[in-house]
Design brief:
heterodimer, A: about 325 residues, alpha/beta, Rossmann fold, 2 domains, seven-stranded mixed β-sheet, five-stranded mixed β-sheet, B: about 400 residues, 13 helices, 8 strands, globular, disordered N terminus
């Protein structure tokens, strides 16, 4: 059964289904109740499931995640909303020192099925702390799983899979894609949460991206096709773990790889992918793995974000450079 | 170290406010004993045992002028946001007395740590209103020099600045200066760990800091009951310093209480918590829609406690202001609005390379490298454009 919906609506429907399917699922966060969240992702859930399951919390991120851990220890499956990427850091201590490590600390005797949803990335003209891409800071932490959908169908299915997962999952939502529409087959069984997919087949070069940058890469592929170049686009979907097999298979066909993300390039996900793919595909590579991403500078004021964010031109520039080798 | 109450600070939490048997806070009403008030919503001047104030007509007119001009500035900013000149605006409508009263209580050598809504406090510190608008237009993240007016940059992350204020106050004390520090925050922020830690540090180090909480009843969509079971000012007692609740829509009471609190801090008696009980008449920001979560009647009820209207009633009853005075303020308001409007519209976008500026005080080879690469990348378009225009013969 296929429906057309925006990413935001897909997430909303996904949460609704999770609440219906499992009485242990709880939603927690700032303004997630009556308001339905500042992006309306929890719209209507408070009304239909009550404040016992859709919980407006005090304005305290460490408190939200810390108590979600306690609820998980008690057998619940909390789905936490952090209002904006830049507001997660009061909770970073709880996430890193407790959430990520408790399962190991208990020698596997306890599980922490907590999902932390974080709207992330720029492109919405916001003030400071509302446009950041901190995913590498979480992917670097053993014990956490990190995923990011790029389209409505993945938003719908990956969120449910994250909620069903017995490990903590940091679920990064590309906020500037919230209003992008697409087809969602709500009856199709999804594949693995952590598998990458080839979003666009091509033969000359592979672009690897996730979340908000997948759309940019698909547009780059379309633009390059007009010039007779065939770009393959891999939507990573998961950043921890990363499905290197799918990237490897693609690079073995194309011989070239450009990794694209909004987050700063320095110590970003692209560095890990470049290193692994160089190890795996050394004799297939026709060019060094190139990276396109943010600069080593604070996310700029809104009037500069268009220049700051990697767009079509910067992706195609990297493609040119990789093909020039 | 003394955290004992003083006449100026008022007694600690004991006896202030009421709690129901379950410990829930009784809904405070204006005029109840736990609320310091010197000017009623009807514009009646009343006395308070702990807080006295004696202002000249000129000073009273000054407070009125501050509030009216601040409100006009705020209204202009909302309009500019609607017109697309600003990306966002956080309105202070309804909180003018809390901000002007507390701001006017500060001395030039005191230091202010604001949230992102302290436009009225900024006004009292002589911060150019245009400076406040840059971050909301998206041309900078604040950018003014905090030391010019002892007014820190706006802080967006909720509650962070209370710790900065506490540390600054610890430094003031170490230096033997007699200045005080004032940290602004809201009812929502009172839940943040940083605020609890700021209270702890300030108490333990007897820091000369006033924690000024504008309880405007709403943290976006969440009412204060979602943050606290007791009136916020009562939290101070648990940390060992005095707390007091003041009618935040009464500029005289806010001025009197904040003066006393700052003097308490300056005189070596340590921190104090002031809860200004007020109301956010507008939306949280221009992106918010309060009709989704609160009743119109509540807003109307608070409209009848308007801070400006009650002072005007008082000024008129006492014959402290005449038509010329009001006409003069109207003209000043119009001039301010015009200056703000034109200033914002003419505010230039930063150059692209500003991205790489001020990342480090001592510079960084990494930033230099990325800047050079990006400059070359951008120049490649100019070269291409030059090449193509040459080719087409234009």
């Amino acid at each position: 059964m296929t429906q057309t919906m925006a990413v935001a609506k897909a997430l909303n429907e996904s949460l609704r289904k999770a609440l219906e399917n499992d009485p242990k699922v709880l939603i927690m966060g700032e303004d997630v109740g009556k308001l339905g969240g500042v992006f309306r992702i929890t719209d209507g859930l408070h009304k239909d499931f009550g404040e016992g399951r859709v919980i407006d919390t005090p304005l305290a991120e460490s408190g939200i995640v810390g108590t979600a851990i306690g609820l998980a220890l008690r057998g619940y499956r909390p789905v936490v909303e952090i209002q904006f990427d830049g507001f997660v850091f009061p909770a970073y201590d709880q996430i890193v020192t407790q959430l990520a490590k408790m399962h190991a600390r208990a020698l596997g005797k306890i599980k922490l099925p907590v999902v932390i949803r974080i709207p992330y990335g720029g492109g919405i003209g916001a003030v400071e702390h509302h446009s950041e891409s901190p995913e590498a800071l979480f992917a670097h932490i053993p014990g956490l799983k990190v995923v990011s959908p790029s389209n409505p169908s993945d938003a719908y299915w990956m969120l449910q899979q994250a909620i069903e997962c017995d490990d903590p999952v940091i679920f990064f939502e590309p906020k500037r894609r919230y209003w992008d529409k697409g087809e969602v087959d709500v009856s199709a069984l999804p594949g693995d949460l952590h598998r990458a997919v080839v979003a666009q087949q091509g033969t000359d070069i592979t672009l690897a991206a996730y979340g908000p940058m997948v759309k940019v890469c698909l547009e780059a592929a379309a633009a390059a096709a007009n010039e007779g170049r065939s770009l393959e686009v891999v939507d990573l979907r998961s950043l921890s773990p990363i499905d290197f097999d799918t990237i490897q298979a693609s690079v073995e066909r194309t011989g070239r790889l450009v990794v694209v993300h909004e987050a700063p390039v320095f110590y970003g996900a692209g560095a890990e992918i470049a290193a692994r793919i160089t190890e795996r595909c050394f004799y297939h590579l026709e060019a060094p793995v190139l990276r396109v991403g943010g600069f080593h500078a604070p996310y700029p004021p809104a009037r500069l974000e268009e220049e700051y964010l990697p767009g079509l031109d910067r992706v195609l520039d990297a493609v040119d450079r990789a093909l020039a080798f | 170290m003394s955290v004992k109450s003083t006449a100026a600070g008022g007694p600690p939490a004991k006896g202030r406010g009421r709690t129901s048997p379950r410990g829930h806070a009784a809904k405070p009403r204006t005029g109840e004993p736990g609320l310091v008030q010197l000017l009623t919503p009807e514009g009646e001047r009343v006395e308070h045992a702990d807080y006295a104030i004696d202002l000249t007509p000129e000073e009273l007119r000054g407070l009125y002028r501050d509030m009216v001009l601040t409100r006009r500035f705020d209204a202009e900013a909302i309009t500019l946001q609607r017109q697309g000149e600003l990306g966002l605006w956080a309105s202070l409508l309804g909180q003018e007395a809390a901000q002007i009263g507390s701001g006017r209580a500060t001395r030039p050598d005191d230091y202010v740590f604001p949230t992102y809504r302290e436009h009225g406090v900024a006004w009292t510190r002589d911060v150019d209103p245009l400076n406040l608008l840059g971050m909301f237009r998206g041309v900078n993240h604040g950018g003014w020099d905090p030391n010019e007016n002892n007014f820190q940059l706006y802080t967006i992350v909720i509650g962070s600045q209370t710790l900065h204020a506490t540390g600054y106050a610890m430094g003031v004390a170490k230096d033997g200066a007699d200045a005080a520090v004032i940290a602004y925050f809201g009812d929502g922020a009172s839940s943040q760990g940083d605020v609890a830690e700021a209270f702890t540090f300030a108490a333990v180090y007897n820091a000369p800091v006033v924690f000024f909480c504008q309880n405007n009843q709403w943290a976006i969509s969440e009412p204060t009951e979602k943050q606290s079971r007791v009136p916020i000012y009562q939290r101070a007692a648990g940390y060992g310093f005095p707390g007091v609740r003041v009618d935040g829509n009464d500029v005289l009471a806010v001025l009197a209480v904040t003066r006393a609190a700052l003097e308490h801090a300056r005189s070596g008696q340590g921190p104090m918590l002031v809860e200004a009980f007020t109301y956010r008449m507008g939306a949280h920001t221009t992106t918010d829609d309060p009709t989704r979560y609160r009743r119109d009647e509540e807003r109307e009820e608070w409209a009848s406690k308007d801070p400006i209207a009650r002072l005007k009633t008082y000024l008129e009853r006492e014959g402290f202001a005449d038509e010329d005075f009001y006409a003069g303020i109207d003209a000043e308001s119009d001039a301010l609005a015009k200056r703000v409007r034109e200033g914002v519209r003419n505010m230039p976008n930063p150059g692209t390379m500003a991205i790489f500026e001020n990342v480090y005080a001592d510079g960084s080879a990494l930033v230099d490298e990325e800047r050079a690469q990006f400059a070359a990348y951008q120049a490649s378009f100019e070269d291409a454009a030059a090449g193509s225009s040459a080719g087409t013969g234009h």
